[in-house]
Amino acid sequence: MTNKISTAQQHQLAVIGAAILDPAACKDTVQRLTPAMFEDGPYRQLFAAIKLQLDTGHNVDAVILERMLGADFRPLIVLAAETVPTISHVQDYEALVMEDYRKRLLLELAAKISMNPADSDTICRDLSEALKEQDHLRRESVDANVKEFAEVWDETLQWLQQPDTSVRMAWRELDELGLFGEKMVTVIAGRPGHGKTDLALALALRLSNSCQVYYLTMEEDRRKLMLRTMSKLTRINSTRLRDRKLTEEERESLNNAFALIKGHTGMIYDDGTRMTVDDIRARVMKYRPRVVFVDHIGLISDTQQGRKEQERLADVTRSLKELAMETGTTIVELVQLNRVTDRNGGTKKASLGDLRGSGTIEQDADAVVFIESQVDGERQLQGPNDYFDVNLRIPKNREGATGRVSMWWQPQYHEWQPAPDPSENYSEDFAPADHEDIPAGW
Q: Residue 164: its pLDDT value, please?
């Protein structure tokens, strides 16, 4: 039942799962849909059982459904309940099921016409009946994305009265830009060796204080990513961690850091190889993160052989944007910049056209962040507390302002922080603790 799940099956599972978890909230959706709109077989049988229960005023839950349909349906019932992204979006899933059904009817009609040696009048009559049915389905369907002005006004007023659930990092300079809103795709772009992964990891760790964060790394294994995390939290030089040359005091520092943060992080590491967008979608459905980091999108595998790089990346960026919209997650994509930005010692100002691989990266992104530094120049770090001055330039931001944020980067500790305001008094120490109960730099 649960081998390879198609997009249409995902939509159907979302409706079924939402109805199992919250029957009352999904009753109207179940009443508007019919079993025929679901794939023939277990999906249709499971939805029909849910519809029967709700239409006759009875309760719906996993135990009741298994009793009605048999133990063979248990894996599908569990899968549906586990993979529904958000119950509040059930009308969106309803609209997707309806759209899939309409497409299926049209494809079946096209196949029937191609195989049937009927005369032109009969074909026209069949087409006319099909168009009438399509019009009826379109009128009956609920498109949750189309609302009249007054309804949208009321919805927005209700939203304004609700608590602020946006994720924040306690970095005012970046929080004010609104780079991690729901359904957003944010691009972090830079040349190799300029700190993209260190910046992404710093952002992910801070966001994980308040929500579930899924970090997919396809360039290095999760152990190496954890070594970066350890160095950042304890300010132990990453070279010492890499070479396992630690003092007893440093080992104790690692243990203390873990004891302080283990209950305060929703971070998930994944070092899957040859990952496709479908694989990422499956992870999102399973773990339900609020924010997803993909390091980096150039390494996402293609599901179709022989395509050009631009075609592959165009499909990747569009699919990731659709995933963000469907699930309400924020997706942060790490992207390489073209080599042209290395000219003149790396002083060439990057443009949106320098995003490596495809113009759709910029088109599908809600925000783009460029890392601008002179790391490849003659500037060398002087001492353990030295740092690089780096600018984060935001040339595109649909949710907020554009501009620059001055940052400090210490690659020896894989640490990033906003540079202090020069008009304020601040310690010379690079990473003062934000709170005495958690490690510095967290």
A: 73
* Of 367, 372, 410, nearest in space to 391 by CA: 372
Distance, in Å, from the CA atom of 111 to the CA atom of 14, rounded to the nearest integer, reads: 29
Q: What is the pLDDT of residue 145?
A: 56
Q: Which amino acid is at 214?
A: Y
Single out the residue of 136, 100, 121 nearest to residue 113, CA to CA.
121
Run of H or E including 21: helix 7-21
pLDDT means per 10 residues, the chain with 442 residues, are: 74 92 88 88 93 89 91 92 76 82 80 69 68 58 63 81 76 84 88 84 86 87 83 83 86 84 80 82 84 86 76 84 87 82 57 71 86 68 76 87 85 82 54 46 53
Task: Name residue, tokens 């306690």.
Answer: 170
Instruction: Concatenate the DSSP letters of all residues of 124-177 into one string.
Output: HHHHHHHHHHHHHHHHHS--TT---HHHHHHHHHHHHHSPP-----S-HHHHTT
∠ CA(144), CA(150), CA(156), 5° rounding? Answer: 70
Report residue 206 CA to chain centroid gap.
17
Distance separating the N- and C-terminal Cα atoms of the chain: 44
Q: What's the pLDDT at 297?
A: 83
DSSP symbol at 240 = H
Angstrom distance (rounded) from CA 197 to CA 293 = 10
Structure tokens of 47? Answer: 């939805």
Distance, CA of 341 to CA of 325 (rounded, Å): 32
Q: What is the DSSP string of 300-360?
A: PPPSSTT--HHHHHHHHHHHHHHHHHHH--EEEEEEEBPGGGGHHHHTSPP-GGGBSS-TH
pTM of the complete model: 0.63
pLDDT at 282: 80
Distance in angstroms (rounded) separating the CA atoms of residues 185 and 294: 11
> Distance of CA 325 to CAs 10, 43, 59, 352, 387, Å?
15, 24, 31, 23, 38
Q: How far apart, in Å, are the Cα atoms of 299 and each of 49, 293, 338, 367?
A: 43, 13, 15, 21
- Nearest-5° angle of CA 200, CA 390, CA 223? 30
